[in-house]
Structure formats: C-alpha cells, structure tokens
Amino acid sequence: MSFDRSIKIAPSILSADFANFGQEIQAIEAQGADWVHVDVMDGHFVPNLTFGPPAVKAFRPHVKTVMDVHLMISPVDAYIDAYADAGADYLTAHIEAGPHIHRTLQAIRGAGMKAGVALNPGTPADAIEHLLDLTDLVCVMTVNPGFGGQKFIDMTTKIRKLREMIGDRPVHIEIDGGVDPTTAPLVSAAGADVLVAGSAVFRGGSVDAPDVYGKNISTIRTAAESAL
Ligand code: DX5
Ligand code: ZN
After folding, report:
1. pLDDT given at position 1
2. Mutation pick for ligand 1 pocket among 9, 15, 216 (CB with most ligand atoms within 8 Å)
3. How many CB atoms lie within 10 A of CB 58?
C-alpha cells in the first residue's frame, strides 16, 4: 500500500444491508469506493452493537481494495490479534477507549496492520502529539460515534491543526460522520484525505440499483476535490 494524499472515499457498511454484506461490498467497490470502512461497536464504548472478528473475517474475501476497521470498543488490546487474523489492513482504536493508547498502537503495528487513532469530537488535536510516529491514520470523528446518519459537527479547526502537526509524515487524516457533498469540501480543504460516508453513499441505492452508489460516491468525490 503506497501512501498519498489524494481524496479517498470510504463507504461505511454500517449503512449497507446487514443480511447481504458480501454483495454490498462488491457493489460499492465496483462503483468506485477506494476503501471499505467497517464499523465495529461493542454496546459498551458506544451505545450500539454491530459485529465482531468472525464477521469481519467473512467480509475479507469480498474486499479487493483496503479494509479499514474502526473499533468503537473498549478494551481494545485483547482483540488486536483477532482483527489481524480477520485481515484488517487498517485497525483504528479510539484514544478515549483506555489509558494505554500508545501501547495499543504499537501492538496494532506489531500484529502487522496499519495503526489508526480516532478522536471523538470533544478530544483535542494535541492529545495525539506524542503518538504521531506510531500512527498511520488519524480519524477525526465529526459525530459522536455509535450511529450512522447523524448531523455533521464542524471540526475544521481541529483538522487544520492536525494537518500542521503531521507535516511530512505519511499519516492519513480520515473524517468520519455526516460526510456528504455539502460537508466534504470543508474537510478536504482543511487537509483530510480519507472521507468515510455511510448514509450519503448508500442512500437511494441497493445491490440491484448499484449505479446510485456510484453516483453518490462520485458526487462526494467531486465536491471534495473541488475545494483543493
Ligand atoms: C459512526 C461511524 C461512522 C458512520 C458514518 O459511529 O463510525 O462510520 O457509519 O455514517 P454517516 O456517514 O451516515 O454519518
Ligand atoms: Zn466509522
């Protein structure tokens, strides 16, 4: 996986048909998704529950691009090997999920994955100052995690600050929550390169009408690129 800062659209399968993940993943990739974003929730760190390692492992053969696994769970460390075995390319943990994020990021890389750190809306950019060299991706939450379809919370000041802190390091800035054609240009202009979008990608489409996914993806991409 080579590093670049081009705009990447990562549909969140949280908004897909839960009875049909394999075909949904194939449909979004055929329609131009750059990465596939997989939201793992534990009903403890966030007030919602999705799926765990066996399901993520079952998604893997369908993902030809990049499997980007966002853990909204606490604790994290006991599950890192299971997500490596499931085939995650990026594994992202929340800085708020425990007292030892430094150790967690080391363990994720040690298990052979790219390490991501996610920041809730209330967490400042400075919180990752001492983690930048352990991190391949910073996920800036633009909603409080737990559910798709929530209203975008403006974090552009935080994104600009992170972009400055990251400098020349090969660290992606990912935005997660409420990304649509209206909000995408705000975050790309501030320095984000990976845009997660759930409801704005899956809205109106299905595996039987996948061209809608393609249209939604390209509209978000065009909006984001127009602000660069
Ligand atoms: C929120 C999840 C997001 C979510 C995004 O807790 O981490 O990935 O699915 O969904 P939308 O794009 O609908 O806000
Ligand atoms: Zn997510």
Report:
1. 74
2. 15
3. 14
**pLDDT per position as a tens digit, 100-145:** 999 999 999 999 999 999 999 999 999 999 999 999 999 999 999 9
Fold of domain 8-226:
TIM Barrel (3.20.20)
Q: Is 193 in the pocket of ligand 1 (CB under 6 A)?
A: no
Which portions of the chain are predicted below pLDDT 70?
A: none
The tokens describing 15, both together, are 């908004």
Yes or no: say if 116 and 123 are a contact pair by the CB < 8 Å rule: no
The predicted pLDDT at position 224 comes to 99
Domain definitions of the chain by residue range: 8-226
The rounded Å distance from CA 210 to ligand 1 centre is 20
Rounded to the nearest 10 degrees, how much is the dihedral formed by the CA atoms of 115, 129, 127, 197? -40
Q: Cα-Cα-Cα-Cα dihedral of 55, 57, 61, 64, to 10°?
A: 100
- The atom of ligand 1 lying closest to the CA of 14 is 9
